[in-house]
Design a protein that fits this description.
mainly alpha; globular
C-alpha cells in the first residue's frame, strides 16, 4: 500500500453533530449536556444563533461520562479529573472507554 492509499484517520475534533443528535444518540437531555459543558467536560462549538455542535470526541466524552455517573462509579467532578488526566496522557477520546475499562478491571483484580 502506498502512502496515498493509506486510510486517513477521522478527525474527531470537528464539531459536526447538533445537540439534538447527541441527545438522541445517548438518550440524554439537553439539561444534562449543559451541565457537562458547564463542568468543562464538553466544549461544543456555539454558532451565532446559539445552536451547539459537538464533535465525535465530545460524543464519546458524554457517553463515557453518562456511563460512569449512571453506574455510580464517579461523580461529575471525578469524571472531569479523569478526562483531564487522559487528555494530558495524549489518549484519544475514541480510546477512553477501552483505557478506563482496563483500569477498572485492574483495580477490581487488585482489590479482590
Amino acid at each position: 500500500m502506498t502512502t496515498k492509499q493509506k486510510e486517513r484517520k477521522i478527525d474527531i475534533t470537528i464539531a459536526l453533530l447538533p445537540m439534538a443528535s447527541i441527545e438522541k444518540a445517548l438518550n440524554i437531555k439537553s439539561k444534562t449536556l449543559f451541565a457537562y459543558e458547564k463542568e468543562g467536560i464538553l466544549n461544543p462549538e456555539i454558532k451565532e444563533d446559539k445552536s451547539r455542535y459537538y464533535s465525535l470526541g465530545d460524543l464519546e466524552k458524554a457517553r463515557l461520562t453518562r456511563i460512569l455517573i449512571k453506574s455510580k462509579t464517579m461523580k461529575l467532578a471525578g469524571v472531569k479529573i479523569l478526562l483531564s488526566v487522559l487528555g494530558k496522557a495524549n489518549i484519544q477520546a475514541e480510546d477512553y472507554s477501552n483505557y478506563i475499562q482496563n483500569i477498572l478491571k485492574n483495580c477490581k483484580t487488585k482489590v479482590n
